[in-house]
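Section 5.1 Outputs to date
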Amino acid sequence: MRECEVCGVQYVPTKAQKYCSKKCRGRSERHRESHKSALRRFAERNPEYNRVIVERRREKELGVSAEEYARRNRYQKGMCVICGGKTKQQLAVDHNHKTGEVRGLLCGRCNAGLGLFQDDTNILAKAEVYVRMGGVLCG
């Protein structure tokens, strides 16, 4: 027996079922969407709160204080270290996943790119050769 996450009714689940009925599943999805939109509205009305949350998370997870971030941002003139682009969003703190050492501030695209290449210089070098050769790699 399992208890429905929405209405609390006891039911016998089939597979990985979380809700007793389609009606309850629909209620849960609507609740999730309304909760997301409420959070979005709150963030739009309270940009300072959002900034503080981001700063706290950055300091807790990466050890970069708001002052250190601002100093690096000024040094980089608000531009991504890799592509040199500016963005409306805050630059991401790039760090070595093995040592935790902060390397610099990156735009979201460059940060995601490094993450997808798993910070592996061999893969990055092969990608560079691939792009330079027009998409043809031999050997």
